């Protein structure tokens, strides 16, 4: 029987990431990602990026969760001969690490852009720590065995976010999770959890949030974004839309997973700008 509706989740109008300052052609080597941003039962296929997009507004009222990780942005886009097939854990056996996904305290998505501050990172073999209710149950049933995530602050300090990667069994299980999460969020039957890094970042786990998620191979990437002041985040908040695009498409897809698919051919910075994501999710069931 379905869990009772989660009163902390509400939907809003779809976000059109094609209008984002980051919208640009995908380069070769990466598989098409499908991004879902919870919305009023609207699914949009973006012609230039192949991303399905919607928007979700969530009100959080519970306790903070564990931190999450980040990874570097610059990668080789062409597949390497010794690269990994990301469609299954059978062909991509190495577990993710926090250092791989979120290696530093600063995350620069693109040259010339101000850095996100990585406040906290976390890796766990229990995917349920990063979700609640039926969303958490779904991830476990579909074989999720790891989540790596981080909480970050935007360069201007106005937004807090939590972002990361769920490691599922194969592409089919990741796609099934992607398709089933949206109706669960719309019905308030669960949500992604945000992670507080300190007392002044608890709103990432309790305040209203915009949420996005996307699949590549057997990974489900996600990000939740809140206002740092805890005020309700507007469906027209273009900065939140840009953050979702930065974290999910540019950083996690074109950065972390593209590098992994290429067999790690891109160097990972050990100093200077690094990647990170952040967001908020309530910890209620």
What can you see in these coordinates?
It is a single chain. This protein is of the alpha+beta class and 285 residues long. It has a domain at 98-262: Protein Transport Mog1p, Chain A (3-Layer(aba) Sandwich). The chain has 5 helices and 11 strands; from the N terminus they run βββββαββαββααββα. It has helices spanning 98-101, 133-141, 171-186, 203-206, 238-261; strands spanning 9-11, 34-36, 44-45, 52-53, 56-58, 106-107, 116-124, 146-153, 159-167, 209-216, 219-227. A hairpin with an 8-residue loop joins strand 6 and strand 7.
Poorly predicted parts: 1-83, 265-285
Rg from alpha-carbon coordinates? 17 Å
Separation, N- and C-terminal Cα atoms: 14 Å
Tell me what portion of residues adopts beta-strand conformation. 15-25%
Approximately how much helix is present in the residues?
A: 10-25%
User: Element order, helices and strands?
Assistant: EEEEEHEEHEEHHEEH
Question: Largest beta sheet, briefly?
Answer: 9 strands, antiparallel
Give the CATH topology of the domain at 98-262.
Protein Transport Mog1p, Chain A
Number of strands: 11
Overall CATH class of the domain at 98-262:
Alpha Beta
Map the helices and strands.
Blueprint: E1 9-11, E2 34-36, E3 44-45, E4 52-53, E5 56-58, H1 98-101, E6 106-107, E7 116-124, H2 133-141, E8 146-153, E9 159-167, H3 171-186, H4 203-206, E10 209-216, E11 219-227, H5 238-261
Antiparallel strand pairs: 1-5, 2-10, 3-4, 5-10, 6-7, 7-8, 8-9, 9-11, 10-11
Brief synopsis:
The chain crosses the membrane at residues 35-57. The chain has five helices and eleven strands, in the order E-E-E-E-E-H-E-E-H-E-E-H-H-E-E-H. With 285 residues, it is of the alpha+beta class.
């Amino acid at each position: 029987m379905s869990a009772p509706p989660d009163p902390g989740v509400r939907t809003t109008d779809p976000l059109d990431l094609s209008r984002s300052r980051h919208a640009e052609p995908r380069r070769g080597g990466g598989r098409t990602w499908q991004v879902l941003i919870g919305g009023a039962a609207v699914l949009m296929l973006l012609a230039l990026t192949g991303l399905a997009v919607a928007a979700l507004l969530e009100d959080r009222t519970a306790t903070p969760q564990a931190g999450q990780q980040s990874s570097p942005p610059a990668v080789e886009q062409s597949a390497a001969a010794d690269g990994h097939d990301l469609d299954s854990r059978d062909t991509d056996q190495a577990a993710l690490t926090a250092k791989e996904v979120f290696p530093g305290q600063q995350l620069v998505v693109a040259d010339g852009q101000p850095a996100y501050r990585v406040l906290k990172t976390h890796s766990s073999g229990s995917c349920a720590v990063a979700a609640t209710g039926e969303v958490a149950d779904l991830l476990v049933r579909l074989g999720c065995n790891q989540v790596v995530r981080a909480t970050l602050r935007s360069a201007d300090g106005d937004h807090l976010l939590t972002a990361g990667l769920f490691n599922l069994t194969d592409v089919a299980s990741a796609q099934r999770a992607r398709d089933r999460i949206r109706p669960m969020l719309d019905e308030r039957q669960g949500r992604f959890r945000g992670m507080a890094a300190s007392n002044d970042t608890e709103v990432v786990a309790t305040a209203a949030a915009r949420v996005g998620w996307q699949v590549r191979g057997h990974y489900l990437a996600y990000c939740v974004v809140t206002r740092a002041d805890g005020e309700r985040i507007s469906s027209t908040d273009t900065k939140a839309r840009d953050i979702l695009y930065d974290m999910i498409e540019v950083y996690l897809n074109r950065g972390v997973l593209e590098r992994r698919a290429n067999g790690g051919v891109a160097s990972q910075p050990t100093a200077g700008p690094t990647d990170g994501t952040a967001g908020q999710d309530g910890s209620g069931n």
